[in-house]
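Researcher: Here's a chain I'd like modeled. Treat it as a single chain, no partners, no ligands.
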Amino acid sequence: MSSERTGLAGQLGRIARMRLRRRNRLAVAVGVPSALVISVTAAAAAGAFATTAVPQAAPASPAASSAAGGPGRQATVQPARVVRAHPLRAAAAARSPATSCTTVGHIGDSTSVGMVSPASLPDPAQRLAARYADVGVRHLWADASGGRSIVEVLPGQVNGYNVARAWVSEGFRGCFVFALGTNDAANIAAGSNVGQLARIEQMMAVAHGQPVMWVNTRTLLSAGPYAETSMQAWNADLQQACAMYPNMRIFNWAGMDQPGWHLPDGIHYTSAGYAIRAAAIAHALALAFPRGGHSAGCVVS
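Model: Modeled as a single isolated chain. Structure tokens:
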């Protein structure tokens, strides 16, 4: 047992060093002073809406994932292309959904970074902030960090739980969107002793009854900690937890995700994929917590 723990610790150490190097590179590419801690204020400059200030206690860095090539190691994004003709956009325009969530706190891992990054989406209208504004969100707090999980941390990092806890202590009141779980599922598959339900319950406890929409997970991998079987197990526990929390809804991203939206790593997305994902998450929020009420069931799609 001690040799297994030593092996896992060594692997995590190698991943930590690799991701800290990547953090410095991507911070330059995105043009932010700290690695992938993104307060979404660019939308205001684009005329989308006024954002809140999001104080950051410390720069966030990728959290410890347990396999090389995981979500903290994002491949180069493809050139953006407009997705105005996508059926999701047409349906959203026809239905004109609106949410009761005028203030939203979005906490994500690297599968959210591309939705808020000008490097992935040069057109501000395609980014997450503008998509949320389309459905009636007026104030957005957003923090996306490559490799983030709910529990694991590396030196200088902020995990998902501590980001949410800091926001609540700073006075955040609104709706949470948690786009977390890909790294958690992988870390559990690699041997973490903190289970899936325990992680989900941590985040729901810090939300303290405020509305939560959780984006479920999917990969295209057939082996390793990031295999799709690990994601399916995570999604099953999300659904189990949803029955316990009246304030929780799940966006079934896994049910609409298409292989063609992914980069070759099977985890991250092309620019077109990130544009679709941003529109889909905002649309789902309007279905999960519409003006005047909330959805009847746990899962929206």
